[in-house]
Design brief:
Length: 59
């Protein structure tokens, strides 16, 4: 008993998030996630750190 009010509030919040429409700051989100201008830059840096040049190294 007594769950009706809490569920109604959760439903209201969920609907506002789902259908609220563009209330988010996309630039701030990009900065927080660390998204750069060049998505391939991260892959190049990871390859350099591992020392991999594509060869097997056994020859």
């Amino acid at each position: 008993m007594g769950r009706g009010r809490a569920k109604a509030k959760q439903t209201k919040v969920a609907r506002r998030l789902k259908y609220g429409g563009g209330g988010g700051d996309l630039e701030r989100l990009r900065r927080e996630l660390g998204a750069g201008d060049s998505p391939e830059q991260g892959a190049d840096e990871a390859e350099e750190k591992s020392g991999s040049d594509g060869s097997d190294g056994d020859r």
